[in-house]
Write a structure and sequence with these properties.
alpha/beta; seven-stranded parallel sheet; five-stranded parallel sheet; 12 helices; 12 strands; about 35% helix; about 15% strand
Length: about 325
């Protein structure tokens, strides 16, 4: 019997592609060129399974594949699945898996990177230096803000939110408050306070860090009204999904100086980033690199592969969504 055919929509780390080849008949994407809708539908018709990633739109029409769907499983390279129509997948009997746990530390590190960069204004200073605009050491020019003693508000106290809170508390002596839809108590951070509402958290926090899933349930969670509640000295950090934030409202608040700054690794309409954001000096912008380490991306690929192997071996899926 021939091995199941797997189509991979993105270029993967070499070790992951080698493992896929050992188990399956694989069609890889060596040039990392995004699939068109037509190519995505064709893949659904001509593969037993697919390994997909954020940026691959998998809506009801693609799932239906003109009535000729062959794919049994979509192994998502990542935790978030807001690019996949989960209801359509269930309707068509397509299994969806993801890769939790393995990217927690890398993403938490990027959240702290953004906090440090935006509060210490490192992007502004480096840009001026690279342009030859640095006039020498100054005691008062471009002063930033310390993290020590500040209050960090975490929205979404899951694996990544908790990892960020631990780094902030033990590494920088920050106070931690958090909001989570399910009522959880955080034992590892002395004094961590669960807030009853997002509004309470926003009004309390000096830095707000978002760690909740994207998709319809949380679209626009940080609305214009909620952004308006932020302190004028507060910063927003987002390493979750761009659609969680009302991006035009955030841009307006930044332009008007109603909040101090923002550190963003994700955007509402990736890879498009509003020109207004790119021109501001009080923001730090990264191109969705929260999990972008060799170790983490390899582990994510191995986890996605393990889901595929389990499915075609008739075993329980390690990370079924």
């Amino acid at each position: 019997m021939s091995a199941p055919r797997i189509i991979v929509t993105r270029k993967l780390p070499d070790a992951v592609e080698a493992r896929l080849k050992r188990h399956f008949t694989v069609a890889l994407n060596p040039h990392d060129k995004l699939f068109t809708r037509e190519k995505m539908i064709a893949a659904m018709q001509n593969a037993d399974g697919m390994l997909v990633a954020v940026g691959d739109p998998l809506d009801a029409e693609i799932m239906q594949a003109a009535g000729k769907r062959r794919v049994q499983i979509l192994a998502n390279f990542g935790v978030g699945t807001n690019h996949i129509d989960l209801e359509a997948a269930e309707e068509h009997g397509i299994h969806i898996t993801n890769t939790p746990d393995v990217l927690t530390d890398a993403t938490a590190d990027i959240a702290l990177t953004l906090m440090l960069n935006v509060t210490r204004r490192t992007w502004m200073h480096e840009t001026r230096l690279r342009r030859g605009e640095w006039g020498g050491f100054s005691l008062i020019d471009g002063l930033g803000t310390s993290l020590q003693g500040k209050t960090l508000g975490i929205i979404g106290m899951g694996r990544i939110g908790t990892a960020v809170a631990l780094r902030a508390y033990y590494g920088f002596g920050m106070k931690v408050v958090y909001f989570n839809r399910s009522k959880i108590e955080v034992q590892r951070i002395p004094g961590a306070q669960r807030m009853d509402t997002i509004e309470d958290l926003i009004e309390t926090s000096d830095i707000i860090s978002l760690h909740c899933p994207g998709g319809e349930a949380n679209r626009g969670l940080l609305s214009a009204n909620r952004i308006a509640l932020m302190k004028p000295t507060a910063y927003l950090i987002n390493t979750a999904r761009g659609d969680i934030v009302d991006e035009p409202a955030l841009v307006s608040a930044l332009l008007a100086g109603k909040i101090a700054g923002a550190g963003l690794d994700v955007f509402a309409k990736e890879p498009r980033v509003p020109n207004a954001l790119r021109e501001l000096e009080n923001v730090c912008l990264l191109p969705h690199i929260g999990s972008a380490t060799v170790e983490t991306r390899t582990a994510m690929g191995m986890a996605a592969t393990a889901n595929l192997v389990a499915h075609f071996a008739g075993k329980p899926l390690p990370n079924k969504v």
